[in-house]
Specification:
five-stranded antiparallel β-sheet; about 55% helix; eight-stranded mixed barrel; binds calcium ion; binds ligand C2E; alpha/beta; Beta-Lactamase
Length: about 800
């Protein structure tokens, strides 16, 4: 009652209201600043502490003084300026101390701060009252003073303790309310503790009333200014943090990657990109548990990029890459994490495409050579004695399809064939395209019969016709089968063997499918090796010509040299022509080889000091396949060799096949001025008719007659007959293979024109200088007639 009556009876109510406004406003601001002090650290904490101390001190002090202005005890009142100033300092320092204590880490520090605050309010009040002097007797009631102290301390402690609770809505005002209670209860209980007995009766209005009202307003203005500064700085700070929040939000929103902010497992915000990934509207994300969308892996991201999965609303698991950054909330109330979530589908698809391109044939999509070899190695390594068949497949007539219908149709046919093979696959089958019209297939088998069935299945799949340009386009296939582990011990050998079998299938008329057979295919393998060797020899200049002398029997002088081809081996030995010419003829390699021989022989002969004749062997293939007269002409011009020094040796076989064409070519050659000799005479079938068809310049009697000469009357008779024939046709005869003196003397006695053989000289690289023939030819007549 005493406090209440003091308030209503002794106070100017307007000014009291003003004090209340200051108190309430100040308390709200102080409570906020106190939270800031607690939430911030280091330098920021000092700034907030300073602001909080000034605002809190000003609030207490102004409330007190404006309330004092409102106090009308009915006596003259004055305030000692020094103590008044001290009271303000006490308020500010005390508030600062209270806030500093209240924001320590200790469990009870808010209460300690609150108690300090209550004591500060009290200290300020009673120091302020010490500055109060009135023209009266002032009596204090210790009970009231004690009560005021207790009230201030209790309310202060309660107010500061509020900081432990999170605040929203009306709860925000609990702490300021308690602060107001602490200030107000102290002030008015403190005022109630004071009894003023005027020493002299007062007449009329108390002087200085207006002045003290003005003073009150002045104090209030100063208080408001201080509070205004505090509010403004607080608002500015709020704005900057709101700005930075909205910048963060814009950043998140504008990102093409999915972004979200999470705190305690709950999504606070998510952007449109993330919502798009999840397949829900953006607003639906807020408040949802993060684990609803991201799997363990993705959620565990911490600083580093991790890959995880996002489960969309339709249940699709989307591979994502997640980066996370942890941050603290500005108000210090816990942590939050910012997630960047990137959709990996496009990148993974791209990676798969690249891998696919590297491992598959771009036309048909079938596995390519690389994949095939890997698959082979894998199956060989894992077969564990299990049989499987390897099919080497080569399309027949594919080149014709390309030529007749064009490459577009050819490509479509390859795709068609690939599709057909893929659709007829059974379990464990593997089909690859190695390039061009070559395919390979693998299938597990239990027997040869089983493998044969699989091959037939492949063949009929390939042979299925394709509709193109109003025509059925179709191709066949030659298939070679090699069986693992019967046919090879290594993957590469197995592939080779399947290839060999395929070549045989291609060559065979009766069948399109062949198994690898060691005996048959080894020969093929040797031939392929030899062919390859010939090619390399040609490229690397490993051929050589050796020269063998031809001599006249009558004069004993060398008349010419025959160029004989040698294939030089790396070890210095030579492979004789009989071992590679037939193969070179089959493969067509004889054409470039023959051209090389012709040119090399002419170059050599042109360099000789003595203009001997040079004899060059021609293959029948050369006669039928190239424009020989033009080539010979060109080489003669190139080398500058006189045409009459060149003699071309051809065998009968060249004549028989196409008599008319060949004789035509030979005539053209003769027109160039070169001479033509018939080689190996007597070994063919129709020697006489070929002699009639073309006017040869020389007959070379085959060397087999020489070796049989001794002891064989038939050989002697044939030699005599050939020599007679030559004489009557007026064609000189040269006897080959003369190895003995007996042979030589026999030939001389029979009137043979020329001889060639080991007796006169072996073929050698510098045959031209080989003159030992000379001695052997000077034979005495007696010996000769005896031999005859
Ligand atoms: P050819 O044209 O009948 O060549 C003569 C062959 O008889 C040569 O064998 C030669 O070394 C051999 N020979 C020479 N004197 C004697 C002898 O006294 N006794 C015996 N037993 N043999 C003798 P070569 O050099 O091995 O040539 C074999 C065949 O290869 C040649 O038979 C020829 O048909 C062919 N040839 C050689 N060089 C070429 C060439 O440049 N082009 C073509 N197309 N074929 C060639
Ligand atoms: Ca010859
Ligand atoms: Ca010969």
């Amino acid at each position: 009652m005493r406090v209440f009556s003091c308030l209503v009876e002794d106070h100017n109510l307007y000014l009291t209201a003003l004090a209340a406004v200051i108190c309430v406003l100040g308390a709200v601001i102080m409570a906020r600043l106190y939270r800031k002090v607690r939430a911030s650290r280091r330098r920021m904490r000092w700034s907030w502490l300073f602001l909080g101390a000034v605002a809190g001190g000003a609030t207490i002090w102004c409330t007190h003084f404006v309330a004092m202005m409102a106090y009308r005890p009915g006596v003259e009142i004055t305030y000692a300026p020094f103590l008044t100033g001290i009271s303000l300092l006490v308020a500010i320092v005390g508030c600062g101390l209270a806030m500093a204590m209240g924001s320590q880490r200790h469990r009870l520090s808010p209460e300690a701060g609150g108690v300090t605050f209550g004591l500060t309010v009290a200290a300020m009040h009673y120091v302020g009252m010490a500055a109060f002097t009135a023209d009266a007797l002032v009596i204090w009631s210790p009970v009231y003073v004690a009560a005021s102290l207790i009230a201030a301390v209790v309310f202060g402690a309660l107010a500061f303790a509020q900081v432990r609770n999170t605040v929203s809505g009306l709860k925000t005002y609990i702490a300021p309310g308690l602060l107001v209670l602490a200030i107000v209860s102290l002030h008015f209980t403190g005022m109630g503790a004071m009894t003023i007995l005027p020493l002299a009766p007062v007449e009329g209005a108390v002087t200085g009333d207006v002045a003290s009202a003005l003073l009150a307003v002045g104090v209030a203005v100063v208080g408001f200014l201080i509070l205004g500064v505090a509010i403004a700085s607080h608002a500015l700070e709020d704005q900057t943090s709101r700005d930075s929040n909205s910048r963060l939000y814009q950043l998140i929103e504008g990102s093409v990657d999915g972004m979200l902010v999470e705190s305690e497992g709950v999504i606070l915000i998510g952007n449109a990109a993330f919502a798009g990934l999840c397949g829900v509207p953006v607003d639906d994300l807020v408040g949802q548990p993060l684990e609803r969308w991201l799997d363990e892996e993705a959620r565990s991201a911490d600083g580093m990029l991790v890959q995880g999965a996002l489960t969309a609303s339709d249940g699709e698991a989307i591979p994502v890459e997640v980066a996370v950054r942890a941050a603290r909330r500005d108000d210090g109330a816990g942590h939050y994490r910012i997630f960047a979530v990137r959709d990996l589908r496009a990148r993974l698809a791209q990676e798969r495409r690249i891998v696919h391109l590297a491992r598959n044939d771009s036309l048909t999509g079938l596995p390519n050579r690389v994949s095939f070899l890997e698959e082979m190695e894998r199956r060989v390594a894992q077969s564990g004695g299990q049989q499987f068949a390897l099919f080497a497949i080569d399309l027949n007539r594919f080149k014709e399809v390309n030529d007749v219908y064009g490459h577009g149709v050819g490509d479509r046919l390859l795709i068609h064939v690939a599709d057909r093979m893929m659709t007829t696959r059974t379990e464990g089958d593997f089909v690859a395209r190695l390039g061009g019209d070559e395919f390979m297939a693998l299938t597990p088998v239990t027997s040869r019969l089983h493998a044969m069935e699989a091959a037939e299945r492949l063949r009929s799949a390939i042979m299925e016709p394709m509709q193109a340009d109003h025509a059925d386009v179709q191709c066949g296939a030659a298939i070679g089968i090699a069986l693992w582990p019967d046919d090879a011990r290594e993957a590469s050998v197995l592939i080779n063997n399947a290839d060999l079998a395929m070549y045989r299938a291609k060559a065979a008329l009766a069948t399109d499918v062949c198994f690898y057979e060691e005996a048959m295919d080894e020969a093929v393998r040797d031939r392929r090796r030899l062919t390859q060797g010939l090619r390399e020899a040609l490229d690397n200049d490993r051929f050589e010509l050796h020269y063998q002398v031809q001599a006249s029997l009558s004069t004993g002088k060398a008349t010419g040299f025959e160029a004989l081809l040698r294939w030089k081996q790396p070890d210095g030995s030579y492979i004789p022509p009989d071992q590679f010419i037939p193969l070179a003829e089959e493969t067509g390699l004889i054409l470039p080889i023959g051209e090389w021989v012709l040119r090399a022989a002419c170059v050599e002969a042109a360099s000789w000091a003595v203009p001997h004749r040079i004899a060059v062997n021609l293959s029948p293939v050369q006669l039928s396949h190239i424009d020989l007269p033009r080539l010979v002409h060109q080489i003669l011009i190139e080398t500058g060799l006189k045409p009459e020094r060149l003699e071309l040796e051809i065998t009968e076989t060249a004549m028989i096949a196409e008599m008319e064409r060949t004789t035509h070519i030979l005539r053209q050659l003769k027109l160039l001025g070169v001479s033509v000799a018939m080689d190996d005479f007597g070994t063919g079938y129709s020697s006489l008719s070929t002699l009639r068809a073309f006017p040869f310049d020389k007959i070379k009697l085959d060397r087999s007659f020489m070796s049989e000469l001794e002891g064989s009357q038939q050989s002697k008779a044939i030699i005599r007959a050939v020599l007679a024939l030559g004489e009557s046709l007026d064609i000189p005869v040269l006897a080959e293979g003369v190895e003995t003196r007996t042979q030589l003397e026999f030939l001389r006695a029979q009137g043979c024109d020329e001889v060639q053989g080991y007796l006169l000289g072996r073929p050698s690289r510098d045959g031209q200088n080989n003159t030992d023939a000379q001695a052997d030819l000077t034979v005495d007549a007696a010996e000769a007639s005896q031999a005859a």
